[in-house]
Amino acid sequence: MNRISQKKGGTRMLLQANEAIARGALEAGVIFAAGYPGNPSSEIIETLAKASRDLPIYVEWSVNEKVALEAATGASFAGCRAICSMKQNGVNVVSDFLTNLSLSGTKGGLVLVSCDDPGGISSTNEEDARAFAPLSDIPLLEPSSPQEALDMARWAFDLSETINNIVMIRSVSRLSHSRSDVQVKDLPDFDVQPYFDTKVSFHTFPIVAKHQARHEKLRMAEELFENSPFNFYRGPSRPELLVIGSGCAVDYAIDAIEIMSLWERVGVLKLGTTWPLPRKLLLENLQKSESILFVEDVDPFIETNVKALAAEAARQVGVKTFHGRGSGDFPLCGELGPSHLLEFFGNYFDLDWKDQEFRNKMGSLTKGKIPPREFGFCPGCPHRGSFYAIKTALAWDDRDGFVSGDIGCYTMGIWPTGFNQVKSVHAMGSGSGIACGYGKLEGFGFDQPVITVCGDSTFFHATIPALVNARFNNADILLVVLDNSATAMTGFQPHPGTGKTAMGQPTQPVDIAALCESMGLEVHVGDPYEMKETARRLYDLMQKQGPRVMVLRRKCALVQGREGGFPYDMHVDQSLCVGEECGCGRYCTRIFRCPGLIWDKEKKKAMIDQVICVGCGICAEICPQGAIKKEAKG
Amino acid sequence: MEQTTVQGQSNLVREVLEKGICVRCGACVGICPYFQYHDGKVVVSDWCQTSTWRCVQVCPRLPYDRASLYDYFYHVNDCTDAIGPHRQVVAARSGDKLVRSAAQYGGVVTALVIFAMEEGLVNSAVLTDRGGDLAPKGVLCSDREAVLGCAGSRYSASAALSELNLAIQAGNDRLAFIGLPCQMEALGRLSLSEPDGQERAGHVELKIGLFCTWALDYRALRSYLKTKGIVEIPKKYDIPPPPSEVFIVETNNGRMEFPLSEVREIVQPGCSVCEDMTAEFADISVGTLEGDKQWNTVIVRTDKGMELFEKALRAGVLEQKEIPSSNLEHLKEAASNKRKRALRARGEESNE
Amino acid sequence: MELNVIITGVGGQGNVLASQVLGNAAVYKGFHVSIGETFGLSQRGGAVMSHVRLFKEPRYSPLIPPNRAHIVVGLEPLETLRIAQDHANPETLFIVNSRPIYPLNVIAGDVDYPDTAWIRQVLEQGGSRLYWLEGTQLAIELGGPIMLNMVMLGALCAIQSFPLETKDIKDILGEIFPQSKLEVNYRALDMGEELISNYEN
């Protein structure tokens, strides 16, 4: 039995913050969970999906975030507690629904979890989704530890039912992917009877009245926040510097205060409820010091709002000196880390905080000698074959063609691992949408061929409307679906094409090729490992017009590795390899760039790294000397 | 494609590909992974970083001392004959009606290749296939049927040398190569190239050259025919001798004629600087015999060519007759004109 | 009490699993634990680093402050060197697997992978002690490179200043691995421990 589903509370267990959010939701009696995978949020639904084996709850991976929140809202309207999770980009996708939902209000406790990605560790941006809380007038909770993540998740449902509106929890990568020992409480009985009360309706009319009601709900939340245990002050009654902040940055501030022994000079007001801000609590604390430091990721959200509050209440709290991202003391972009806090305190209090001697010594020893580690497709990854074929076809065509990219592992097509073929990447499905634009420029003399790519999961998420648009408007687009039968980037979650649900139940898979055919598109299916054949097919398709689709189908190498592995033992016959000589010029290692195929510096020949190579065999095709040999595994 | 600082390959690309004068001979293709030929075009797929540049050494569109080739092949410093060094010029045709019916004219090339194979002079031959949806390309043939399948004129470049390069790479020996004057020059340059050109050229036992005034850009031809309503794959092309001035295309739906002046617009620009009409560095060069569609003009150039030609006559594989002197004059005039045009186009004065 | 351990390596080496195993064992042993992980694109061969912090009192902070790692477990030499300047100090103890995993830009010849003998030398000079282990070799002998993380955990447990023993790790492995995989992982831990106890320098 999964310990997340452990009925009895009271024990302390190591949980990832995302697992803690899932456990908190279960402790609140959630019976419905939906989401769309995206780092760093995916483990919430994954954890609940695992728990669904032991508990009477329903969990789904939805086709996209908007549908996920809509499905969860259905459960809420029927009186059930429901949770919906996503990464920051997903909140953009749900926003159209969210800003209307918050007007209609909800019934069963409904919680939206956004896991933001400061620094964009695995995202296309580092957007601060907190902005959607004031935009939608909904309460916002920000945990700063796994324990708090659990406690907040549990309480958020009570809050939602108290004010009859959706509540947002905002985590960040650093927290979501951290683990700590967490105290759990008992799980309830989950004995809910869904029922939609037809005497009540959920819509946004009359609009102004509903808008007013929404603000009233927010005011109720603010009152509760004034006494929330998620907000607390620690420090002297009159600190020289008052730190106000949320999330992990507060933990770093506390660490820095400990390290520099500043508890008599610095106070910390940690906020867990950051929209609406608890005014009374803030005004009371603002009076403690004339210097305020804001610590938060990413935007100066608390900072800006507290500054406005301090301006309103200037007579009461006095004139302040503000420090923070917005005031230029920290970078306006990127994740705050422990060194930012130490450096600030060091400068502010004129204290030494780092072992400069050690840093100098190591710095001078290693300067310029530590190469970065370039991102790349895994050994055996079908995307390497797909992009190689795309590169070849575009070169053959010779009209300066390029790839309009999308979101997934294959986003790395912008880098050498994808032969730098991808020239634009934005949001889910945008590659095809943008291609619809290129596809109507022929009449103006535009002659460059464009291939747009999307993964299988992205196809379902947001590519379909773009493809319908291409059909409708007869745009010349060539979509290559990189179908690796997984949402690989985020950890192999099932999607509509895989024939399995989040709860592991079989379901009718949606056939991408058949769906495209039904739209009247020319559809071909190929294998990314057959690079030459794929390139030929793509070249032919590039010479045609109208919307065309090529589905390149091959299982994600990591999945294949788990499900029986690869067929070949690879080796390089170094007597055939000509290495740097004319006729090769290190083609395999320099251009093809598979981590399993490395350069033997001494012999100046290619060789296989037997620890890394998985044995997919496709590199044998690209060696001009035929020196890369594959043999069936014995 | 991210450009890096590479000397040789980038020079070739700048001087030939970017100037649009590549004639798709295929000499640079197949010797490395960086040049590729597909559907009538030679392209660069990636940037190389080596410092030998066999590609540069063999490219017939880069300046080269022609005298060194005359010296190497014919032990002469120069050649004032417009049709190049040769042992004899005759009219000939295949002795086999079947071969003649498959061929464009007298079937000499087809007959000679098959004969050389059957006699064991060569094991296999690289010719140009018929093309289809895609432009014609080189093909390695090792039997009579395959060779017959390649009979007929293409009027488009095929980069068939790439196929020869691959055949050599794959370990084939005693090869015949059938190609255009630019390809014979590239093969000649190969013999003189470093580091392994002589060794690689040594695998070519027989070179049969085809007369050529110019070749078409296949992709442009396809677009041209499309504008004329021809979308199916043509079965045959023909340009009857002057003064007809037409380009004939035969498809399953019949025969269509187009003004040659229009078709000249889609001639490869690189052909305008080519000074060789009769493939001066082949063992035997073959072309039409003006005024007689059943016969070919044959220029036998080397001892090896002479030996094969005579053997073929003795075996009845070929029939020959004397070439009318007016034909020979016309041929020399045409060849001389091509050379003059090329030198003018290159900004060099004719030394004739 | 505060003990800061960094486990660093490359995506696919089992870095995250190692920190999770360690954290669970520490919680069972009565410690309060905080683990911060940097992954993201790391599944694709990028750099991965876990900050494992053991406390006697309840505390959470997912990143070890600069230059405050007591022990660095390096699954890959270059990645160990990469984090040394910012995270180690003259008292830091390094346990490093000697086998490189070459970055793509190194394979391509764009940049050089430093000589491993030099990496070893710098780490020796940098901290208080370096254990330079042929962990991958041992892992392969045990059944595959993926056993490396358990070998290195075994080595970590053999360190005097580290409060957990291989037995503590073994006690919780049953929660992580299926029964069929337990025996080989136990052996990996034992062999890793022996690498340190038999270490000759």
Task: Explain what this protein looks like in three dimensions.
The complex is a heterotrimer of chains A (634), B (352) and C (201). With 634 residues, chain A is of the alpha/beta class. Chain A is built from 22 helices and 24 strands. Chain B is globular, with a radius of gyration of 19 Å. In chain B, the strands form 3 sheets. An 8-stranded mixed beta sheet of chain B has the order 5-4-6-7-11-12-3-13, with helices on both faces. In chain B, strands 8-9-10 form a 3-stranded antiparallel beta sheet. A two-stranded antiparallel ribbon of chain B has the order 1-2. In chain C, α2 runs parallel beside α4 (116-126) and α6 (148-157) crosses α8 (179-197). Chain C has a single domain (2-197), classed as Pyruvate-ferredoxin oxidoreductase, PFOR, domain III (Pyruvate-ferredoxin Oxidoreductase, domain 3), CATH 3.40.920.10. Helix content of chain C is 42%, strand content 19%. The two termini of chain C are 31 Å apart. Chains in contact: A-B, A-C. Chains A and C meet through β1, α7, β8, α9 and α13 of A and α1, β2, α2, α3 and α4 of C.
- The overall pLDDT average of chain A reads 96
What can be said about the biggest beta sheet of chain A?
7 strands, mixed
Radius of gyration of chain B: 19 Å
List the secondary-structure elements of chain B in sequence, H or E: HEEHHEHHEEHHEHHEHEEEHEEHEH
Helix percent of chain A reads: 25-40%
Oligomer: heterotrimer
Strand content of chain A: 15-25%
Distance between the termini of chain B: 45 Å
The CATH H-level homologous superfamily of the largest domain in chain A: Thiamin diphosphate (ThDP)-binding fold, Pyr/PP domains
Envelope shape of chain A: globular
Q: Find the structural class of chain B using helix and strand composition.
A: alpha+beta
CATH classification, class level of the largest domain in chain B: Alpha Beta
Number of strands of chain A: 24
Annotation, overall tally of beta strands of chain B:
13
The computed structural class of chain A is alpha/beta
Instruction: Estimate the mean pLDDT confidence of chain B.
Output: 92
The low-confidence parts of chain B are 1-6
Number of helices of chain B: 13
Write down the CATH topology of the largest domain in chain B: Aspartate Aminotransferase, domain 2
Largest protein interface, residues of each chain: A-C, 70 and 66 residues
